[in-house]
Structures are given as structure tokens and as C-alpha cells.
Amino acid sequence: MLHIEKYGAVDIGSNAIRLLVATVIEEEGKNTLFKKTSLVRVPIRLGADVFLKGEISERNTNRMIDAMNAFSLLMSVHNIKRYKACATSAMREASNGAEIAEIIRKKSGIKINIIDGEDEATIIASTDLKSLIQNDKVFLYVDVGGGSTELTVFANGHKVASHSFKIGTVRLINDMVEDTMWQQMEDWIKLNTKPFKKVSVIGSGGNINSIFKNSGKKSGMPLSYFYLVSFYELIKSYSQEERITEMDMNPDRADVIVPATRIYLSAMKWSGAKNIYVPKIGLSDGIIKSLYNEKLAEQLQA
């Protein structure tokens, strides 16, 4: 007997807003299946407002309201049983973030949870990341967003250290990251990976997913440090317009992919990693898993 439900995850990032609809399939005696049914991405760059002016503009507030109303309708059409909306660094740092979250709740019915970097890392860690982190290997998990980069070191199958740095793609293209912040991230990575002989990187985020797709590699295979270096040199040699017309990139990807690649390369260099794995998971996937875990907890309590 199958039990099938649909869950919704809204990820409000610094570079874009996403709605992931996932079908959760339960069958007695078998592992629960999570299938991505629909993904809608809206390029509302909140970070461009917040990191430069400290608040979300009226224009982007109205765009967010429209997006949330659209997401609410889509979730209704999909007959979503559970959903959660999480906002990261842009809304967290906006002076009017909480105020706008309340306006959106009243106008669309969607409640937005503004989470910190630690919460974000914890939610993502609840995904299929667990199946990739073998007990006999050491991984540096690197999630690059528009406003911040979340780092987590996994060893012996467990998290041993994590930290959030205000180094993100939107901040970088607006020249808002000081050298001291880069140095802090370098020091942290070296300190927390030094005890281990061999470290691999796990990359998360839209940019590394795009790079992996471009590589033509089979799912589960890693990208090498040398491949990433050559890709970085290639995209730097193109103008933003050429990346759109000749490399077939979306306009809101063509500018941020350069600083994103720099962050992944830096993390690999400072940790001594030769390979980066790209499991194509992110905050949205983590939200879906956390919703399912909440359901199980409720059933146990009942």
C-alpha cells in the first residue's frame, strides 16, 4: 500500500527565490522516496538591495509579494500537504526583513522563517548528504549563496565543525568583501582540515550545479581541481554578454558564476582537496526532508 503526499519548500536566497514541490512516497517495509516534481526559480536579487542599502526596496518587496502569491497558488494546485518557507542572509540582514515577512504573510498566507547560517547548514545536512559522507572519508561541505558561504567539515560520518562566512556571489560582484574576510575563511578551513590527510569537497548551490552540468560528467562522479581551474580561466576570458550568448547561461547566472567558482577553488586549495563532488542538493531539499521528519515526530507523539 502506497501513501503519497506532496510537500513544498520555499527558499528565499540572496540571488533568487525558489519553490520546490516534492512527492513523498511511503511504502511499508521500504525506504521513503522523495521525487522532485516541480522547481520554479524567480531571479529576484534581494542581496543587491540589502548588501548595498541595508534594506529591501519597495520594488523588490512588491516582486516578492507577487512571487509568494504565485507560489501559494501553485502549492494549492499541487495539493501540498506541508510546506515551509525559509529566508537566508539577505532577509536576515535587511533592516526591514521581519516587517516584509509579516506583510507577505498577510498578503499571501505564506509564513517566512528567517534562519541563520547554523540553521541553514543543519537543514541541508538532513538531506541525502548523509549517504555521500562515508565513515572512512573526510569532506568539506561548501554551500555558496549570494550572501554567504556555509562551511561544514565531516569526519567519521559526523559533523566536526561548521561556520558561516559573509562571502557570497552577490556581495562579491558588488565589491563588498574585504580581504580580511577571505583571510578568516582561509584560516578556518586550514585549521579544521589540517588534522586530516585527505579531504574532498562537496559543493552545493546553483552555480556548482551549472558547472557540473557543463562538464558532461556522470552523476556521482567528482570534478577535479584542475577541471575547475580550467573552467574558471575559460569563463573569465569571456565577457558577461558572451557567457550569455556563447555559453548559453541565464543572465542572472552569467555574472555570479565567476565569483562562485573562485570560492569553490579557494576552498579546495586551502583544504588540499583534489576533487569536488556535486550531489545537487540544497536548502530546498533539506526543507522537504525536515518536513518529513517533523511528520514522523508527530506520529510518534500521537
UniProtKB/TrEMBL annotation:
Every Ppx/GppA phosphatase N-terminal domain range: 41-291
One Gene Ontology term of the molecular function aspect:
pyrophosphatase activity
The organism's superkingdom is given as Bacteria
Name the UniProt record assigns to this protein: Exopolyphosphatase / guanosine-5'-triphosphate,3'-diphosphate pyrophosphatase
Organism in which the protein naturally occurs: Ulvibacter litoralis
